[in-house]
Amino acid sequence: MQKLRTVIVDDEPLSLDLLRSILSEISDIEIVGECSNGKQAVEAAMKLQPELLFLDIQMPVMNGFDVIRSLQTDIMPMVVFITAFDHYAVDAFDLHAVDYVLKPLDAERIARSVDRAVDRLKNDVDRSFKSPLIGAIEEISERASKEEKAEEPESNIPDGMKRKLLVRDSGVVKVIPFDDIDWVDAAGDYMCVHADGETHVIRSTLRDLMTKLDDNLFVRIHRSTIVNVERVVSVTPLQKGGSLLHLTQGESLKVSRNYRDSIRKFFN
Amino acid sequence: MSNSIYHPFLNAIYRNTNVQFWLLQIVGWFGLSLISFLSISLWYDQNSTDYIYHTLFQSALGVLVSWPLRSLFQFFWNDILIFRISSVIAGIIGCSLIWTILRISTFYWITGNYVWHEFGPWLFGSILVFVCWTAFYHFVKYYQLLQNQHQTLLELASDTQQEQLKRSQAEAIAHEAQLKMLQYQLNPHFLFNTLNAISALVKVKESSKAHEMIVQLSKFLRYSLDNDPVHKVSLRQEIDAVKQYLNIERTRFGKRLKLHFDVPLICESIDVPSLILQPLVENAIKYGIAPSESGGKVSIVATTEGPYVFIKVIDTGPGIDTVKSSIKSVGIGLKNTDERLRQFYNDDYELRLDNTSVGGLCVTLKIPSDHLND
């Protein structure tokens, strides 16, 4: 059988060494990339399109959860989270069937995660990996914000807010003008709205959002991804008919073959 | 007061014994005149206004005549029993005589009837009235005394209860501080990450480094567990423990963590509360180093100035928002440190947060520089 193309991410060099060492003894794994921070992880996931990602949660600047939020649903690899101690996370992972391993890393436990990943890759034709991950992350941030402040602040949003989106971030309602949205991807019941370098998660369906968003500005480029065409700075064609969109903020998004016509319309 | 449930007017009566006395005086004496009107005046068919006037007048006289009795009883109140009894008898007889004479003279003056030959029966009535007055006075007085005792007992009980509550609260705070200290010592995040790093060193066959790290971890844990947070240690011991901790963190973080120590020899023998620096250093790592991809530096600098020693823990992180840079707003660790310092030094210490000129945070600890063997 083909090896799982794997990227490993941890900010502690020793921890990365250990992970590499353990995984190198597992025949199903081929490590294609190593990253020591979140930003590198996002780039590696985009460029290398791995099937499996071992991702440390506690990292500076962009933590493991931020990495998941900013990755396009359609290219989301399977993810195994790594954490030293965080019982909120462990609870939430169990609840949403997200795989995780605890530090100190244990070869046997990691082998089991790899087995599980191999199984899922065989059986899960949908490749809807982001949805349970986002579910777990939302659960964790909800619990954490509940601990921080017991009551949610009252939100005063005037009616008749056209061309604006309301998102709730740890108890605070934010208003995001449509023009500020760079791209959006759907992960099951959740929508990840990427705007101004931040990712906001809302509960909605892609169809609902599409009816709200402006047809002249937003276009579907993949099964679960829509992009603000004004943000696109360049397009790189890929083999097999797909292409890669590069956005102003430096992100890249994959366009699937099935949607290439909709993109073509805008750039002609 | 427990009787605050009453109307304010009733409340005033309840508290002021003078008001009570005069109220009872008036009600009692004029109640008596009502009774004597209903029984005697009506019986003798003396319903002309003169008789009614006299009845009211003799009550007013009664109020006046009985007034000094109060002072008399109060004067002998705490005296030996024989004096008290004598004073009571003398008072009753004296007042009865005066009142009877006044009553008979005013009776003649108002109604024109001469009743001096009936002095005996009139006196008999007066004595009965004053015996009743005296009995009632003592009854009220002892009732009040009982009430006061009851109240004092209640207050005493609630005082002891409050005292106990305060004591258990103080104990709870002390326990909490100790518990937090333990949490610091056995911070699971630190422990598991460190074990993971050691496991990595073993796996990649860096056995001497692994060994070194195990020794450091053991020393650090032993120091934490051996030292009671209520005791003091020398600054040197404290710095050594912090060094163990920081060296472990440096192995974990690799190039991202730089360390700098500047503790002059003269400061090393100064005694400090044990484990006082640990939370500060841990905060420096957590907020100053860990969130930065390029890492940073943690410095520990000690200086003496007069009778004080200044110990600074400086990081190169983002610093803090000066608007809320009071101890209370920056997490449980510093609050705990502040509480512990207060336990040791009362108000003779200072714990200050400043942003450094390059943007990091500097936590300054100013404490009296007591030397261990002074």
Label this structure with key terms.
heterodimer; A: about 270 residues; alpha/beta; Rossmann fold; OB fold (Dihydrolipoamide Acetyltransferase, E2P); 2 domains; five-stranded parallel β-sheet; about 35% helix; about 30% strand; globular; B: about 375 residues; alpha+beta; Heat Shock Protein 90; five-stranded mixed β-sheet; two-stranded antiparallel sheet; 11 helices; rod-shaped
Structural notes for this entry:
The complex is a heterodimer of chains A (268) and B (374). Residues 150-155 of chain A have low confidence and may be disordered. Chain A folds into 2 domains: 4-143, Rossmann fold (3-Layer(aba) Sandwich), CATH 3.40.50.2300; 164-267, LytTr DNA-binding domain (OB fold (Dihydrolipoamide Acetyltransferase, E2P), Beta Barrel), CATH 2.40.50. Chain A has helices spanning 13-23, 38-48, 64-70, 87-95, 107-123, 130-148, 206-212, 260-267; strands at residues 4-9, 29-35, 52-56, 78-83, 99-102, 164-169, 172-177, 181-187, 190-195, 198-203, 218-222, 225-228, 232-237, 243-247, 252-255. The longest helix of chain A is centred in the middle third of the chain and has 19 residues, at 130-148. In chain A, strands 2-1-3-4-5 form a 5-stranded parallel sheet, with helices on both faces. Chain A has a 5-stranded antiparallel sheet with strand order 10-9-8-12-11. In chain A, strands 13-14-15 form a 3-stranded antiparallel sheet, with no helix packed on it. Chain A is of the alpha/beta class and 268 residues long. In chain A, helix 2 packs parallel to helix 3 (64-70) and helix 4 packs across helix 6 (130-148). In chain A, strand 9 (190-195) and strand 10 form a beta hairpin. Chain A is globular and about 50 Å long. Chain B is rod-shaped, with a radius of gyration of 43 Å. Chain B has helices at 8-15, 17-43, 49-76, 81-111, 119-185, 188-203, 207-226, 235-253, 265-268, 278-289, 331-345, and strands at residues 232-234, 257-262, 271-273, 296-305, 308-315, 350-355, 361-368. By secondary structure, chain B is α+β, with helices and mostly antiparallel strands. Chain B has a 5-stranded mixed sheet, covered by helices on one side. A two-stranded antiparallel sheet of chain B has the order 1-3. The longest helix of chain B has 67 residues, at 119-185. Chain B folds into 2 domains: 8-163, no CATH class; 186-368, Heat Shock Protein 90. The two termini of chain B are 53 Å apart. In chain B, strand 6 and strand 7 form a beta hairpin. Chain B is 66% helix and 12% strand. Chain A binds chain B through residues 11-15, 17-18, 21-22, 37, 58, 60-61, 84-86, 102-105, and chain B through 188-189, 192-193, 195-201, 203-204, 251-254, 256, 290-293.
